[in-house]
Automatic annotation (TrEMBL), chain A:
PANTHER family recorded: ALDEHYDE DEHYDROGENASE
SUPFAM superfamilies: CO dehydrogenase molybdoprotein N-domain-like, Molybdenum cofactor-binding domain
InterPro entries recorded: Ald_Oxase/Xan_DH_a/b, Ald_Oxase/Xan_DH_a/b_sf, AldOxase/xan_DH_MoCoBD1, AldOxase/xan_DH_MoCoBD2, AldOxase/xan_DH_Mopterin-bd_sf, N-heterocyclic_Hydroxylase, OxRdtase_Mopterin-bd_su_IorB, TAT_signal
Matches recorded under Pfam families: MoCoBD_1, MoCoBD_2
Protein's name in the database: Xanthine dehydrogenase family protein molybdopterin-binding subunit
Gene3D superfamilies for the chain: Aldehyde oxidase/xanthine dehydrogenase, a/b hammerhead, Aldehyde oxidase/xanthine dehydrogenase, molybdopterin binding domain
Domain of life: Bacteria
The organism of origin for this protein: Salipiger mangrovisoli
PROSITE patterns: TAT
Domain named Aldehyde oxidase/xanthine dehydrogenase a/b hammerhead: residues: 215-294
UniProtKB/TrEMBL annotation, chain B:
Signal peptide residues on this chain, from the entry's feature table: none
Superkingdom per UniProt: Bacteria
InterPro entries hit by this protein: 2Fe-2S-bd (IPR002888), 2Fe-2S-bd_dom_sf (IPR036884), 2Fe-2S_ferredoxin-like_sf (IPR036010), 2Fe-2S_ferredoxin-type (IPR001041), 2Fe2S_fd_BS (IPR006058), Beta-grasp_dom_sf (IPR012675), Diverse_Oxidoreductases (IPR051452)
Keywords: 2Fe-2S, Iron, Iron-sulfur, Metal-binding, Oxidoreductase
Name of this chain's protein: (2Fe-2S)-binding protein
Domain 2Fe-2S ferredoxin-type as annotated: residue spans: 1-75
Gene3D superfamilies assigned to the protein according to its UniProt record, in alphabetical order: 3.10.20.30, [2Fe-2S]-binding domain
CDD domains (alphabetical): fer2
Amino acid sequence: MGVIDQLARRLGQAPVNVSRRGFLAGSGALVLATALPLRPVRGQEIAAEAPAVTAFLELRSDGTALLRSPFIEGGQGIFTAMAQIVGEELDLAPENFSVEIAPAGGPFGIMGGYRLTGGSMSTRTGYPVMRQLGTAARAMLVEAAAREWGVEASELTTEPGVVVHEGSGRRAAYGDLAAAAMDLPVPVSPALKDPADFRWIGTALPRMDVRAKSTGRQNYAIDVEVEGMLLAALRHAPRLGLMPASVTNQAEIEAMRGVHSVQMLDGAVAVVAEKFWQARRAIDAAEIDWIEGEAQWPMPAGFSSAAFRDTLAGATGEVVEVEASGDAAGTLQSADMVIEATYDAPYMAHGQLEPPSATARFNEDGTLDLWMPCQAPEMFVGAAAAAAGLEASQITLHQQVLGGFFGRHFLYATANPFPQAIALAKAVGRPVKLIWTREEDFLRDAPRPLGLARFRGAVGPDGPTALQVEVVGEGPTQRWYQAPPGQDPSATEGISGKTYAIANTHIGQIFHANPAVIGYWRAVGHSMHDFMYEGFLDELAQAGGLDPFEMRLSMLSGSERHRTLLERVGEISGGWTPGPFEAEDGTTRARGVAMASPFGSEAAVIAEVSVDGGEVRVHQVWVALDPGQVVNPSTVEAQVQSAVALGTSQTLVEELVYENGEPTARNFDMYPILRPDQMPQVHTAIVESGAPMGGVGEPGLPAVGPAIVNAVATLTGQRIRSLPLSKHDFG
Amino acid sequence: MQLNINGATHDVDVDPDTPLLWVIREELGLTGTKYGCGIAQCGACTVLIDGVATRSCATPADSVAGLEIRTIETVEDTEIGRRVVEAWVENEVAQCGYCQSGQVLAATALLSDIPDPTDADIDGAMTNLCRCGTYNKIRAAVRSVSEA
Ligand code: FES
Ligand code: FES
């Protein structure tokens, strides 16, 4: 699609040799910088000038390399993938790399601009740039050797970590050439390797971080230790828009063991103490009077998610066209039978296992250091500068490896703790680490929006003849990046952007503002819209007396790629068998199928379910995923496992309910997430169609829910149009 | 109060009901033990107490005085623990990794007790949450230790 084309065009810039620019001076290292384009955030295709992103490679005299990844590691294996790609073109084994996150702005400001870790964009945007970086560095090392030996560069080859002159048998290690190479100009367009010769790209290299993460040695933001710091815990107003008037027992609290002070914040009260537990205990004891205050998105006192769902179901207003073909309205008008259904999906919490935290330290020279999780460093620095009253250049951001993210660590007003940590550090004149308890995380998370869509369709003997959908609500890209209705993919993707051939379609959005502070959740709009669309597609199949698998195949007759993928998932599941059938263990089971086209990749999923004690049990999930091409198959497989887990979790049990303006769940007791004994077996087939590289972090998720729900319909006859399944009784 | 943590006796001066989790993290500075929920739901804070996997966020410090407490930092001091860590590395279980200290210790406790666990044993013992969905790899890693 257009996004990728735009990206490809911006990738023309050659790397710049910045090793003589004064920073890192004396390191004797070759330092290359290159510009990465901004990931065009959903809806941000509208932003005309995308700023750049930096990535750096430092080749050390000992032959090892330091790679500064533009993308943060949060379990998706991106550091390893980046080393694989650069190593491939540089001809240096990935195990010789150490990878760290590239800092925001700062001395690397010659690039300026933004970057995000999200949208399943890291590998696909990084891929061409990192290859270019690696090959440029390799060419410079070769050139350095050529000059030293007085031979033509074209006579030289490389082996991993070594430049070789076959004619004379001379060899030089990269580390010994780094200092000479750093004086050379960066070649404009050195040749990239023929993918047929790839040594590391496409192989299942082990991830670099598994040992540290298996022995408790990986540090996260919550583990940051800064000399002289105090710890803080806080309590937010139960609703956004309230503010603390007073803490009636403040003196008592300040007398508690270890407590430094009580601090009033915007919409919250914090306790600062020597230890977090002391702060936590004190804030739990605080008696706070809340009064009406101000907020950009005040939460209405009576807000309930159930009532909001009904409001969306009845919403009228302008239907802004997103996609259309043929004459959907006319075809439906003249159809013998029109199928109608309304689907909805709930608010959901991110539930990343590491609770949010931030550490702030003002330095003597007035600058500010911050330690925190973040998926968009430059944006965070900008917001931190505003919060601290400083220039962005006065802020050093220490980005920490993420204890899960799933969209949690984008910049959302009121959902990130760092502005509060800054205020507290300022107030107490010492560094402060603020940790949000899980309860405060649930209260101020930016949840996946509750969404709803109204479907009308007609079906003939050969499949659907018309489809009209009104998606009602607001997407996070409108909220945070001002994408207008109809041009906000996050509001409709998964209902828009489907690949089936239906002659007459009309997909529209009715904008309806969401009172909650909504955010991006893994797979974003796809996380719910594919459930709705694929569920309705099965309803059409049923109405037309068609097999859902065969009907989908026939609707894909125009696309070899999609047919292949659907056939593949059928194959790996042992052949399409909807059931119900009796399994070996005596349970009665059924299977459902669904597809999705998320984030530049394609996915086809079959799920097998049974019902046990009134609850749905998912036994197996087969996923055929076509991300075009693959850098690390074991990472892709792990991401599919993870996406299936989250997709199953949201389908079975997840729902953030609001009553009286507050979420009723504040922790994992009232907001269950998938337990180990609920995890299905996952069978993955990676199909490399050779199409432009798509994402892998999110694409495994969207088709899981509808495959489960379609299987449940086959098994029980109950068509579920509202998630999660746990609120329905299958007894 | 005296606590025996990782083979050494530590004098800690905390309120007696301070959760063991925060004693370990804040008094001893051992941050491998994680805070995830604070209400015994997730298992990120799992430690071994006399060999039993225990959620330290809901364990008052004074209730474990005199008992042998082991955290992830010394898991490799035991043969089973060492094999569990190797299996975790070999199977590349971790994604974000935040839950994995607890998972490794839960597996160590299970395999110390039952060297060859059934699926039901694994279901019963491996109850820690993982938001990254590494459950199948966890099971495979546990299996690889028992089958080794
Ligand atoms: S932090 Fe103890 S169980 Fe979650
Ligand atoms: S690996 Fe991320 S929570 Fe388990």
